[in-house]
Structure formats: structure tokens, C-alpha cells
# Entry
Amino acid sequence: MVARDKNYLAGGEVMDLINTIRPEYEGRVAFLAAHLGHPDGQAFARRHDMEDAIVVIFDADGSPTRRLIIPQTADEVRAALDVVTTP
# Structure
């Protein structure tokens, strides 16, 4: 889950970064965004202490396992995702 506020650039850049590796996790990971301009996205972000460009990785039970603050590389995101996708 990435938090995205269209008024800031970092969230869009992180979404673009995630989109480069998304095919590698097809069928294993649901990629979602908390739209910070929408009340539901704002509520979700408050519950998980998120702001623009923060990525939170959840396990299959919905528990947060990793928190990335403005990840800079695809490898950084892969490492966090591999924790929850490796059997």
C-alpha cells in the first residue's frame, strides 16, 4: 500500500517505481494506493501513520510487516515484498 497525495511529487514517483516491478509479483501481491485526497484514503493513512510516498507492506492476514519511507530503488521495494511472498 502506498500513500498518494497528488499535491506532492514523491508519491507519484514511488508509484512509478512500484509499477516497474509489479509484473514480477502478479497473482501474489495486491498493489493498492491510499488516495490522500479522499476520506477513505485519509482514514486508512491515519490508522497506519502514513503520508505521501510511504509504503506499508501487509502480510496475507492484513498485518503490517514493513514500512518504507520514500523508497528510492526497485530493489528496496523487492526486498520488502519478498519477506511476505517467500514461502
